[in-house]
């Protein structure tokens, strides 16, 4: 535990400093003496889902653990978590498909909560604010990527729930310049899926060349291959910008959901998309789907691959790429992506479809995600 002393905000408390949450008496740790608790570097605890060793989710690798309160150091805020989205990346980390950067680790990188304390010298205006925390936890701010608006490519980037403890917990710390102020009345479970799935879906659209339609030209045609939480946000943004959206996904339930969100066509990966596409985004972590998407785009079209982890892409004839078609991957998001998406989410407004789980049921949420049993996004509600 660090030696940092931190200040508590007006709304500090809740489970964090209640008598029941104190692991052992620290002499001053009483609900009525919260400031003293903070100053005394107390042993209050945070309840978290901890990953000690990756394993298939049916072997329940996450365990509920009581950890020492995280203390915000210089430039950090302490956040009382209200909700945390469960992302496919969490599943890949927990199962070991994504190599752990450190163990044990608390996963979770789509966090909505309230700032309850700040580190020394921090901006006191943040205390009491509702904020979001996303995948990008910090960057170097100096490299060629950081200096050219591409901080998502920074070699020194650190990630929430991978390099530092994430939001499958009652409390989490974050760098203050990497939190996103949210409207005070935002519903935590609805906002959480925007912070990763939504933001990376948004970046994928931009990488694929999708933007606000020119009113004088024909509407663009966009294909979404796979229809989970990320695509659910992407279709709403693309429709708002005036694009016609075609959705390919295995599940008939998801095809129905795509139609209900305005897709002009929804079918399976084996069906032929009935229109040539100007752009496509693939969400399914399968190389064969990338080829399907490439076969569906017209000359000059771009396929953006929205996947942090993908099996190999099968060999394909150059004719499929010829005529200036492009194939691009999407890696992480910048803070600007998150800001832009959050602004759009308010304006459109974006509807998120969530299934709620308790913190204790994080393992069940991951199982449901693995089995394709989540419609929309899985969110832990604290
Ligand atoms: Zn994610
Ligand atoms: Zn950098």
Integer tally of domains: 2
Radius of gyration: 22 Å
Which molecules are bound besides the chains?
A: zinc ion
Major sheet description: 8 strands, mixed
Strand fraction band?
15-25%
Structural class: alpha/beta
Give an overview of the whole structure.
The protein is an alpha/beta fold and 382 residues long. It folds into two domains: 7-193 and 333-381, Medium-chain alcohol dehydrogenases, catalytic domain (Quinone Oxidoreductase, Chain A, domain 1, Alpha-Beta Complex), CATH 3.90.180; 199-329, NAD(P)-binding Rossmann-like Domain (Rossmann fold, 3-Layer(aba) Sandwich). It has nine helices and 18 strands. The chain has helices at 34-39, 88-95, 188-191, 197-207, 229-240, 252-260, 287-296, 335-347, 362-370; strands spanning 7-8, 45-51, 62-68, 76-86, 111-118, 130-133, 136-138, 158-159, 171-175, 179-181, 221-225, 244-248, 265-267, 277-282, 297-305, 326-329, 354-358, 377-381. The strands form four sheets. Strands 1, 4, 5, 6, 9, 10, 17 and 18 form an eight-stranded mixed β-sheet that branches. It has a six-stranded parallel β-sheet with strand order 13-12-11-14-15-16, sandwiched between helices. Helix 4 (197-207) packs across helix 5. One zinc ion (ZN) is lined by residues 139-140, 142-143, 145-146, 154, 156.
List the SSEs and their pairings.
Elements (H helix, E strand, L loop, with lengths): L6 E2 L25 H6 L5 E7 L10 E7 L7 E11 L1 H8 L15 E8 L11 E4 L2 E3 L19 E2 L11 E5 L3 E3 L6 H4 L5 H11 L13 E5 L3 H12 L3 E5 L3 H9 L4 E3 L9 E6 L4 H10 E9 L20 E4 L5 H13 L6 E5 L3 H9 L6 E5 L1
């Amino acid at each position: 535990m660090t030696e940092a002393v931190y200040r508590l905000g007006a709304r500090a408390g809740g489970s964090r400093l209640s008598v029941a949450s104190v692991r052992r008496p620290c002499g001053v740790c009483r609900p009525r003496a919260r400031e003293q608790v903070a100053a005394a570097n107390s042993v209050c605890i945070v309840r978290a889902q901890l990953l000690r060793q990756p394993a298939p989710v049916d072997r329940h690798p996450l365990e509920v653990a009581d950890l020492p309160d995280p203390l915000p150091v210089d430039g950090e805020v302490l956040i009382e978590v209200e909700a945390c989205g469960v992302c496919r990346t969490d599943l890949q980390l927990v199962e070991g498909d994504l190599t752990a950067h450190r163990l044990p680790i608390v996963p979770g990188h789509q966090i909505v909560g309230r700032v309850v304390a700040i580190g020394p010298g921090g901006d006191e205006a943040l205390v009491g604010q509702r904020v979001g925390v996303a995948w990008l936890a910090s960057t170097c701010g100096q490299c060629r990527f950081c200096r050219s608006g591409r901080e998502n490519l920074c070699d020194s980037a650190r990630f929430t729930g991978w390099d530092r403890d994430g939001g499958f917990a009652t409390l989490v710390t974050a760098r203050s310049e990497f939190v996103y102020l949210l409207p005070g009345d935002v519903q935590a479970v609805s906002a959480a899926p925007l912070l990763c799935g939504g933001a990376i879906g948004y970046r994928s659209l931009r990488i694929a060349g999708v933007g606000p339609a020119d009113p004088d030209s024909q509407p663009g045609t966009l294909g979404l291959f796979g229809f989970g939480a990320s695509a659910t946000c992407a279709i709403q943004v693309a429709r708002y910008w005036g694009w016609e959206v075609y959705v390919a996904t295995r599940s008939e339930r998801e095809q129905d959901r795509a139609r209900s969100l305005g897709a002009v066509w929804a079918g399976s990966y084996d069906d032929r998309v009935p229109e040539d596409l100007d752009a496509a985004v693939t969400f399914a972590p399968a190389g064969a789907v990338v080829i399907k998407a490439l076969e569906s785009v017209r000359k000059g079209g771009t396929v953006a691959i929205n996947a942090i982890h993908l099996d190999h892409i099968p060999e394909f004839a150059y004719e499929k790429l010829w005529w200036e078609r492009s194939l691009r991957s999407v890696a992480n998001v910048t803070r600007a992506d998150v800001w832009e998406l959050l602004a759009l989410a308010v304006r459109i407004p974006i509807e998120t479809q969530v299934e709620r789980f308790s913190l204790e049921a994080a393992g069940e949420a991951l199982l449901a995600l693995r089995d394709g049993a989540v419609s929309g996004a899985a969110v832990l509600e604290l």
